[in-house]
Amino acid sequence: MAEKSAASVIVAPRQFEIREFDLPDIPPDGGLLRVERCGICGSDVHGYDRMGEGVRIMGHENLGWVAKIGSEASKRWGVKEGDRVALEEYVPCGSCELCRTGYPRFCPQTSSFGHTGENPRLWYGSTPIDVDPALWGGYSQYMYMHPGAMVHKVPDHVDASEAAFFLPFSNGYEWAVEYGGASIGKTVVVQGPGQQGLAAVIAAREAGASLIIVSGLGRDEHRLEIARRMGADYTVDVEAEDLVESVMRYTGGHGADVVVNVTGGGRETVKEGIDMAAFNGVVCLPAAGNETISVGGTGRKNLTMKWCHGHSYRSVERAITTIASGRYPISEISTHHFGLKDLKYAIDSVGGIGAPGAIHVSIDPWMDL
User: Fold this and answer.
1) For the chain, which terminal residue's Cβ has fewer other Cβ atoms within 10 angstroms, N or C?
2) What residues are paired with 7 via a beta bridge?
3) Eight-class DSSP state of 178
4) Contact indicator for 203, 233 with CB cutoff of 8 Å
5) What is the rounded CA–CA span in Å between residue 319 and residue 317?
């Protein structure tokens, strides 16, 4: 095995350098991941504009092979050297109240608030390189497996680009099913046909939803077509049709039992969600815009609104299982992959200004080096 790892390091807003790092000694409770692919999250499009976390190796949708592992870590995670695994971005402490009550993603150790150089945030893709052992991001050939890492096994047969979709897919499960309650017989509306909106479509279909509607803009025609192939019953171009009227027509006046807003913006998307929600509807807001609404405008509804954050361990497991099943053409969502030298272009592609037709994009750190 190599003694060094090449990595793409963000050194200034939108500026990356390829650097080499020594591979660390691995403690009994830690490990080393040989990165196979790292997916690009939509948050990276905003994350590469700022340096608040410092010089760092970005990338938190990490898939790879266990290159080294300590004996204690092997027992705790149930994996051995050579196993294919996926790591969540969170690096929780495992002992605080939030960790022990099923919410490790909110653990103070992995939170973005209240951290200093002496007490750094541990989050893959955000922890700076001056925190030992530096290899905290997936845009690298190797990555440190911290004792607190959230580790999942991945079947060997799954295509790397498709497997790298596991984290956005887990968000779809978390938001549509865990937060929203999508289940057998429910009607679900997904606002926004991006990678996580498409994931929510599949999750709702897997949960047994009886009717799924996806909305988007005129330029989203291809993505809306993919949404239909993933299980959506209807799609709505909101620039050509009134979304609320369309939902009421398709649902026979019932409305949406679950609304998942992953538009990332808009001036009236939250209001539309409220207006088209059913009497006992749930409006989930994982990625809505900065919108002001009237709390008196809901009418006589037993409405629930939920601010959604991240994913649970269970949702990641469900995402990996569904991808591995081959029941859905995930390759139509996992559209592109690039090497480390093209990282900025890859992130730009996710942001809509790089490769045309990009939806979910991943980095192969061994490509073209």
Assistant:
1) N
2) 19, 140
3) I
4) no
5) 5
